[in-house]
Amino acid sequence: MKLKKILLLVFFTNILLNASTIFTLSGVKKVYLVVEISGKTIPKSYKSMIMDSLQTMTDDLKIDTKGYDPRSLAVLVNETPINGSTMINIQLLIGEEVKRLDNYEKTFALTYQDMGHFVLKDGDDPEDAFEDTFDTMLLKFSEQYLEENKKISKVVINEENFASEMHYETNYDEAVKKSKKLQKNIMLVLVSNFCPWCRKFEQRVLLKNEINEIVQKNYIPLILNKEKDPFPKEFDTGFTPIIHFIDHQTQKSYKNVIGYNNKDEFTYILRSDNVAK
């Protein structure tokens, strides 16, 4: 009996060490979304942002969230004080009723769990660290879900396919021709290799439907990698990302935005441009 227990322990330890997760997302078609924030460091206003992100992800994955369901997809945020700093803990969970194998009694169990953490010092703004951690958790969930539910044909947009999936031009001369023909200004996004803020700007801002609608309606969107794509060097300021708004008649930049701007900031920038009102 003792040997049997040892063998079982070795077996399960081996599974845990060699598996990316012990949970499966196969067959999860409907969930009820829950967000709870405890503690004083993370503003309660983040709740709507978290809920919007969960809704966007589940919509993309074709997971039904309408009405109540005994299976919950929950985000729980709490904090732990550590030597004058604060550790923020984020849990992404699925909880649901399951039946025990031996007596078939119903019990509540966690059928998915992922955890993320980051540490804040007094006065730190939690926004970027929170979004970095939470976005990574959602991406991990999405990739596993897509892998285990292969009937769903969902394109994960990344830096390699961003331009084609979001309908951005990738050739400066062609974009100029198109802007002249349609009499629309160019929105040039300059990025570079190994630029984390470029990736964040693509994923957190340019991918948002409300942003893309404004961009596609009012501009010829063009994205170029400054390290490999040809373009007039007058647009290179040395920083990335940088966004130039280029007049379709003069091909001169009449406004530029240097560095990362969040969704609300970039929406204001677009709305303040005369052509995007």
TrEMBL record:
Signal peptide from the UniProt entry: none
Taxonomic source organism: Sulfurovum xiamenensis
Protein name, as recorded: Thioredoxin family protein
Limits of the Thioredoxin-like fold domain: 180-269
Domain of life assignment: Bacteria
InterPro entries: Thioredoxin-like_fold, Thioredoxin-like_sf
One Pfam family of this chain: Thioredoxin_2
